[in-house]
Amino acid sequence: MLQPTTDRPMGCFAVLRIKVRFHAWLLDESLSTKPLLRCVLCPMRRCAFPRLGCALSTQFRCFSLLCLVAFLGKAGRGLLKAVVFSCVLTGPINNICLNAGEVVRLFTCSAVLIYNLNLARVDLMTKPFQVALNISKDHFIREEFEVLTNITEPIKLEVEGVVDGRMKRETAADYRESYKRKLDARCRAQLDHVLKRCKEALKEVYDECHRVLPILVRSMLCWPLKIDNICSTEQLFGKRQNVCSPERVVYSRFGEDYMNLKRSERSFVEDLMQVQITFEIFDKEHHEGYLWVILVICLLFGMLTFSLSRQAQETSRVVVLQFEQEKEKIDLTVFVLEKMFAFVFIRVIVRAMVYHQNYLKKIDFQNHYIGKHFLRIDSRRKQAGKVGVLPLRYLESPHYVDLHLVECSRTELKSILSYSISLIFMIIAVTFFLLVDNVFYKTLNIVAKNAQVEFEQQGYHDVNITVIGSGLIAKMLRLSLEGFETQARLNTTSSIDQCLPNPSKLSSWIIVKIYLLFLAIVILTCYEAIINRLRRFICARFYPKREKQRVLYLYNQLLRRRKGYFKLLLDRMLQTLRRRKYSARLDFLNRLVFYYPTCFLWIKLLHRKSCSICEVKKPKRFHDCISYKCFLTYCDECWHDLGETCPICAEDSNLAHENCAPDH
């Protein structure tokens, strides 16, 4: 009956070769249709063992055809769905991520541009302060306060006679006595000089008088000039001791004050030698608080700027870094999903293998097809005077498929509709992603075309400081403020062209490919019933004895069920009663038709009846039970099977069972 299974290693070898080819495709290429066909067809074309297996093994030939049919069945549709998902991941979703990267670049570039524009204005305002601090040195204060140290040099020279006299005197009395002697000596020298000049002047006058006047007169008139007492200091100023006495000039605390002056000067000079000025100019591109300084200055000058909490370039770098990290996660997720979708290919082979094994091992596996052999068995029974099973009852027809009918059975149609609903939701979801990507692209494209802006900044900042005077304070101010004299100019033109987004447009071929795949899935879904029948036909052609066993088993099973068909009708009717909750009363519309048939006959045209057992609503004649107990409705088929008697209205259930027994 069954073919031997010694040829199974050849089939396994072919499957193994297909799997190896599949893994190569999985690792090297993305999920697409061309590599998929290559990984399936190339092993079959190049491998000699599968061809030899097809020539020698019935099982392998059957399994090979089932694999081809499986690509057209539910597993094949699942593979096409995986290809669609892969196209969506690598198409619109990846394109949305790329355009999102352009949005991030637009944000960061605009932030840096605005920051640089504001920074240029602030630099123009703060230029004098920057120049003044940049030209400062460690000896800045020392150079200015050296003027103070030069003041004490004439005093030391006057008191001590030398510039550096730190070791010449030790006590205040010594300084005072020394200075008194110096003043006394200076006074005496001055008096001697005055006396000498007086004598020289008198001698010059005497010589001139003696030269000019006649001899008789000059002796009488010029002799007073030869008197020495005229130039005597005592005659002119008084006693020399009183005139040159320094007691009235040098006060008693002169020595102490002079020592305090030298001590202060020494301390000041020694401390000044160790003076170091430390200052810091904030790095505007790396200092976190500099933007707050910019904010305060701009508010003081009536300008508008952005109060950022961190530096603009650092903020942009952090935003780009975070986006790249999230983009890497998305790329990793897409990569993993693509490889997971690729394993759907294995499902096609597994489904074909499972169907093949179940067909040979399980006699009731998908055994619901009524073909020619089934008709011949039923015809022989009827010719022999036995009860047949054809035609099928309405309650039985959903569970069986008549191969002579082209239309789908209710079970097949239900499966197609349920799969179509899920496919519609999938198409809507994919279309949504495509629309989002298209709207995103068009928005960025509009921004790129219409957001071209140029920024032009012009300004100047001249600072001229003039300090009038030659004193100590004037010199100090002049040294301090000379760095603030600047002439700064600002004339820049900036454009936002480099910050404009460069959106990526999704390829039209990807969209066409996605909807072509959907069209292929829809076509395969519509022909699902034919494809399922084709699988049975392939197995029936390769295993005719097994198919006869399956048909015989199906016929006997249908006979056994037909014997309990009456009980099935009663159970269905009771279930209908419980579900509809029938009582002695009709519903409102049926009551109108029942009591006023002439007036409300048109309700029958709108309110279509259904059989209480099989719930059929076909336009055929119904049998209504007009008893006050049920008011049930039966179709012709169910009414005939019930023996044209309502079992609910029957008084004796046993009698009703005898009267309603089916004909065999």
From TrEMBL:
Start and end residues of each Dendritic cell-specific transmembrane protein-like domain: 365-555
Record's subcellular location: Membrane
Segments crossing the lipid bilayer: 289-308, 416-436, 510-531
Annotated Pfam families: DC_STAMP, zf-RING_DCST1_C
Keyword Metal-binding part of the UniProt annotation: no
Main location: membrane
Record-level GO cellular component terms: membrane
Annotated InterPro entries: CSR-E3_Ligase_Protein, DC_STAMP-like, DCST1_C
Keyword vocabulary terms for this entry: Membrane, Transmembrane, Transmembrane helix
Membrane topology: Multi-pass membrane protein
Domain (E3 ubiquitin-protein ligase DCST1-like C-terminal) ranges: 609-651
Protein name: Uncharacterized protein
Lineage of origin: Eukaryota, Metazoa, Ecdysozoa, Arthropoda, Hexapoda
